[in-house]
Inverse folding.
């Protein structure tokens, strides 16, 4: 979801400046949107096992993003660290939905 928002913001910036949006950027946004839609439909159609699988995937992603943000901070890349933290927060919010 965060990746989609980032690409959407980049597309909006190009449009605001009156620049042509690169084709690769549009394709990336479409690919991400299709993945989001596929995941949502998979979860809705699946049962308890699907929800558990999704939760486990989110947990692994949360841990990975925590490690990435720390790594970027140590490497002195604050921009990438900030993006990783934002992604981690979004994954954490999604985990909270499944905890309750």
């Amino acid at each position: 979801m965060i990746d989609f928002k980032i690409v959407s913001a980049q597309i909006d910036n190009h449009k605001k400046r009156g620049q042509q949006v690169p084709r690769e950027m549009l394709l990336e946004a479409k690919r991400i949107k299709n993945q989001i839609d596929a995941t949502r439909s998979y979860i809705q159609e699946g049962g308890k096992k699907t929800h558990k699988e999704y939760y486990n995937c989110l947990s692994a992603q949360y841990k990975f993003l925590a490690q990435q943000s720390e790594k970027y901070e140590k490497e002195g890349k604050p921009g990438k660290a900030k993006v990783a933290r934002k992604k981690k927060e979004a994954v954490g919010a999604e985990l909270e939905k499944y905890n309750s």
